[in-house]
Fold:
Amino acid sequence: MKRKKKIYPLILSGGVGSRLWPLSNKNLPKQFLNIKSKDSLLIETTKRLKNSLYMPATFIGSYDHRFLIKNNLDKENIIYDSILLEPTPKNTMASITLGALKISEKDSNAIIIVLPADQIIEKKKEFNSEVQKIVNACDLKSIYTFGIKPNSPSSEFGYIKKGKIINSKNNIYKISSFSEKPNSDLA
Structure:
């Protein structure tokens, strides 16, 4: 009998809210705002994970936002594994490392999906289908990332350059290069 692969979401709910100022600010960052629905972006992220693919999520965020995170989750009766709090912001890699260590204490074979709490992804079924494709088709000892084709140049996003194809059926490529938020001319 084939063992079902468990996917553990790690939801990054840090950030200080500078990009959408004045709507978003250090006391109420964008992940706690209702942008395109009645729910905050944090709750929209958790609703995307209401699927049998996923285990209860681990959240990581700022100590200063601990009540915002907990109140958002409790208000919607979201079942979660844990909430990890950073006493001071240490950027994405530190958060991912902390969360991955916590999850791997529970399951050393965990498949971890890292999700920012402030993204808008309207096509939930398609998103979950893409996650399932990677879980089924790939070497799970590697790191995979999702990307979308930009509509126009922007210095607000990182850029992934596709390399050699890994799996043509599922449209999975090696990454040739990544540019973290390039200047306008390069974008």
About this structure: The longest strand covers residues 159-167. The chain has a mean pLDDT of 88. The helical segments are 41-48, 66-75, 91-106, 124-137.
